Amino acid sequence: MNKSSLWTIVGVIVAIVIAWVLVNVLFSVLAFFFKALVVLVVAVVVFFALRAVFAGSDE
After folding, report:
1. Where are the transmembrane segments (predicted)?
2. Percent of the residues in the chain that have a pLDDT greater than 90, as a whole number
């Protein structure tokens, strides 16, 4: 095995490790935004439900 083959193998391993980390970060960010979106939708539904309940009891 010559020196360039060794550096090629090391480069491939480093590229795989960097890609693995980037994909993990990307999925973490996407999961955070999805959770935030779900929380926002649930909060809006609860807000309008509470507003309807308390507005109906005042009349």
Report:
1. 6-27, 32-54
2. 80
What token pair was written down for 12? 């491939």
Helical (H) or strand (E) element with 56: helix 3-58
Cα 14 to the chain's mean position, in Å?
Answer: 24
Write down the residue that tokens 């509470």 correspond to: 50
Q: Which two tokens stand for residue 51?
A: 């507003």
Residue 1 DSSP symbol:
-
* 4, two tokens: 């360039």
Token digits of residue 33: 């935004």
Contacts of 23 (CB under 8 A, 6+ apart): none
Using a cut of 0.85, tell me whether the model's pTM lies above it. no
